[in-house]
Each structure stands twice: as structure tokens, then as C-alpha cells.
Amino acid sequence: MSGLLEHLCGISEPRVLVFGMTGRQGRRSSRLMTGFGTRILAGCTPGKGGQEVDGTPVFDNAAEALERFPDLNAAVLFVPARAVLSAASEALEAGIKFLVVTADGVPTHDAIVVAERARPHQAKFLGPNTVGMVDTSGYLFGMLGGRTSWARKSYQPGCIGVISRSGGLSQLLGAFHCRPHLPAPRPDGTYGPVWGEQPPGVSAVVCIGGDPVPGVSMLDAARAFQADTRTRVIAVYGETGTRQENDLAGAVAAGEITKPVVVFLGGKFTKSGVAQSHAGAIVRAEADTYSAKRRLLEEAGAAVVERPDAVFGRVASLLGLLPAD
Q: Which residues make Cβ contacts (< 8 Å) with residue 81, sequence separation at least 6?
């Protein structure tokens, strides 16, 4: 099994350790991940070592889990925001190469420290404040989908790579690319089905999270999709705040990202100094604004659409899928 993680961090077959597996969210999400095909080898909760969750052994710490399962290479953290720095540092020291940090409200300073500690280990982390990622080669990390039956039905293998700063938009942009006869705005201004019985599907969906300091950035994910042979078009949900869209525009303009990029950019009416739902969406400088980001993206050659569902019509046009009226 190979997927996007091979291009993000060199992992071809993820073997997962779940922090907080004995908690309600950890149990529920572990069942979702396993049902989608993710190989979860162990859980980790301080003081709960020796227990099992649905037959999966739980250890007190990551080092004990790695001693038992030395091929563990990824971890999903269902721990409170205040515990993220400690848990992430523990995972990195134990040799984990990819972390998914789901917690909201992680202090920015802690996220910076995690990033600094990941670098010498040549490790990556997704989040904080992410619902995770799904790869249709057969694994899911985090909470995307909610229920296994919905996730398996809604994320079908295909050629669209989705990057989103929003959890909700991750699911919308991902799942709707997998729905036959999807009605949506078309590039010519009409509204109707943008493809027929066979939708384009997705290669992977990556929610980079809405915090000011992400681990995997929008550009990191775009580079991975650029290298991914399944992906033909990159669909992006961006917004005001941070310079991630600016960096993506620069990579497109420089020819580093050559696959078509379609962007819905949120925050058109966001005022300076006001956060738009996500902590990272606050406008602190002119370069963080909607107008600046849109200008850079369009000058680079990316397609920027006015509403989220307009992404599908533009994708269909790029792939030659628009039905003839």
C-alpha cells in the first residue's frame, strides 16, 4: 500500500500508534480508522498500560509501544491541547516519523516547539486543529467521515488531491468529488450536473488545520500531490491569515507546482485584526488579506472561484468531464 505519506515523509506503509486510545474520542476514531483500513498496532495512555481497546494493546508510553512494535512509524494524538507538547515530544523521541495532532487550542508556542523538535528527527506533523487526512489507497488518520460506512462510501479512489484549512470543507471537497451526477455551478454561469455517473474521485484529502503554525503546510501538501502519480488536479480551501496561500502561489508561479490548482478562498469580507473562525485566519498584514492572496494566486495561474461548490465545475472543466447539454 502506497499513498501520499510516501511523498510527505517517506512512509509507504503506515503503522499507527494512537495516543489517548482509551478515551471516548480515541476509541471512536480508532474504530473509524481501522474500519477504513488503517493498521493500528498499539495505543498509548499513561497509567492504562496493559489494557486493550478492541483487541489492540495499550501501553503507558510511546517507548514501550515501540519496544513491542518497532515498526510503528505514525501516531494520531487524541489528547487535550495542554498535553500535545509532551505527547508529541514523546512520540518524536521514540522515533515516530509522522504525527497527526487533532487538538484545538494548542498554544502557538507549543506548536513552534513541536516543529523545532520534529526537524532533527526528519519527522512531520499534521495539525494542530485538524480532522486529519484520508488516503484512498487505504488509510485514514483522525476524524474525517465520522462513521466508517460513510467514509468508505464517500471517499472513492480518483485523481483529485484536496487540501483544506477547514475540517468541514475537507469533507465537502473530498466527498462531493466522489458523488455521481453532482450538480454545481459551471464555469459558463449555468448550474447543473458537472459530471456523469463516474465522478473524478480523490487521491487523498489533507486537512492542514486552522492554526497559525501548522506542521504540514499547504505548500508541503501541494508538493506531495505534485509528486503523487494518481493526482491530476489539486483542489484547495484557503482563507485569510498566514502566508500559506502566498507560498503556494509562489510555487505555482515558479513552475514547482505544475498540476492545475483550483482554490476557493474564504474571508472576502474579513477585517484586519478579526479572526474568521480559525485562529490562523486573522489578518495581520496586507499580504494576509483576501485581495492580496487572490491576486497572487490568479497571477500565478491558479483558478480562484467565488463559492465552495464552484470548485467542482472548474475541476470538471479541467478534466473534460462537463456533460454536453
A: 103, 104, 105, 106, 107, 128
